[in-house]
Design a protein that fits this description.
- This protein has 395 residues and is α/β, with parallel strands linked by helices.
- The protein is 35% helix and 27% strand.
- The chain has twelve helices and 14 strands.
- The strands form two sheets. It has a seven-stranded antiparallel beta sheet.
- About 2% of the residues have low confidence.
Length: 395
């Protein structure tokens, strides 16, 4: 259904557009910012299923850190929006068909941007969004307007993901989903986390946000990396976010030993794209610390490529591209086997769509309960690990 907004005021036109994209279930979210009422910080509107009915849920973020929810049925949506829109000087609408916005100047002049293009893009084939309460797919953990994403340059102040950061946003969300999948193996109230070779620390901030702000847990966390400028930057961001339990240290992870005020050990070790043998160091440190869960995404598998010495595999290794793929798979398989030999249930999983990044393998390890290195399963895994190394290295 097409609508004509040419004879409407900007506020009326935006109300019509927002009503339409809501009713068609293609609205991702609408962000109302620059409010006239100074007790309001912003309002975010998303689609929800309330009482088995699809509604627009308006969430007002107040200056006293409280949040107020208002559910608006579709039959009254247009009239309600005509009351809400004038109270804000900027409104950004994000849909699966495209985005549009309203801007209001200090003099009161209103300008619409992108509405006609958005309306032209809407069709019966336009992808519908997944709603909380239905079973089409899981709702993402992050929406995009989280303060740490804004400070890290993933999204703007309205929560709109920058085009060049869309893959990074998807990667962070997927990583948190993988944490959620294993959180039954982690403490429920207080957790200690290490992000080794943390780099710009997207995962550090995301994991801290998830456990502290989403789960409401007490979180103590270290990010460790060799680059002093990166550590200085991350420490500054953590301070701005008031992430008091998150600390960054400039150190060689070979020598890093975390100190916990709560007297506990490491519960979770994470790592994103630790280069080449740095991933092996991450895994060895996590095993040494008896971490309950390890989530590591490897990068740059060069070591085995230089040391492979296996005549039986020469029919693959004679071709450089195939040799690299073989070494990638064999290196990660050895890592998983080492984890199994040390009391972990280990898997290799796809992190995100390979089209978004070729570095998309996640090594996941969860500590077994009552593990003993003398158990038949542990001994078998240890023998398989040593035999595989000997086979690949010609020893």
């Amino acid at each position: 259904m097409k609508i004509d907004i040419t004879k409407l005021s900007p506020d009326e036109a935006l109300a019509k557009v927002l009503s339409l994209v809501s009713e068609k279930s293609i609205l991702k979210k609408a962000v109302f910012s620059k409010p006239r009422d100074k007790s309001v910080v912003r309002m975010v509107a998303t689609l929800r299923i309330i009482g088995k009915k699809e509604m627009l849920q308006a969430e007002y973020f107040m200056s006293d850190n409280k949040a107020i929810h208002k559910n608006i049925a579709f039959f009254e949506l247009y009239d309600a929006l005509l009351t809400i829109i004038p109270e804000f000087n900027q409104v950004n609408i994000m849909t699966t068909a495209g985005d549009c916005e309203l801007r209001r100047s200090k003099s009161g002049k209103s300008t619409l941007i992108g509405t006609n293009k958005l309306l032209a893009a809407i069709s019966d084939e336009t992808e519908k969004v997944a709603l909380s309460g239905n079973d089409r797919k899981k709702e993402r953990i992050l929406k995009g307007d989280e303060p740490f994403l804004v400070l890290l340059g993933v999204s703007d102040e309205n929560g709109r993901i920058y085009d060049k950061k869309r893959s990074k946003f998807n990667q962070i969300n997927r990583f948190l989903e993988m944490i959620r999948d294993v959180e039954d193996s982690l403490p429920a109230d207080e957790i200690n986390i290490c992000d080794l070779c943390c780099g710009k620390s997207y995962l550090s901030f995301a994991a801290y946000h998830y456990f502290r702000n989403v789960k409401g847990m007490s979180v103590k966390m270290y990010g460790a990396d060799l680059k002093s400028d990166v550590i200085e930057y991350c420490s500054d961001v953590a301070k701005k976010l008031a992430f008091e339990g998150l600390r960054f240290v400039c150190t060689d992870i070979n020598n890093f030993e975390p100190e916990w005020e709560n007297g506990k050990g490491v519960d979770l070790v994470i790592s994103l794209h630790a280069c080449d043998t740095a991933t092996d160091i991450v895994i060895e440190k996590a095993i040494e610390w008896h971490a309950r869960v390890i989530l590591s995404t490897p990068c740059c598998h060069h070591e085995l490529n230089h040391t492979l010495n296996c005549t039986a595999l020469s029919f693959i290794a004679d071709y450089s591209m195939l040799k690299q793929k073989l070494c990638d798979a064999a290196t990660d398989a050895l890592r998983l086997k080492l984890l199994e030999a040390n009391g972990y249930t280990a898997d290799a999983l796809e992190l995100i769509d390979p089209e978004e990044t070729p570095k998309n393998i996640m090594l996941r390890a969860v500590a077994r309960k009552n593990f003993s290195k003398n158990s038949p399963a542990a001994k078998k895994a240890a023998l398989e690990y040593e035999a595989a190394k000997s086979f690949l290295l010609g020893k």
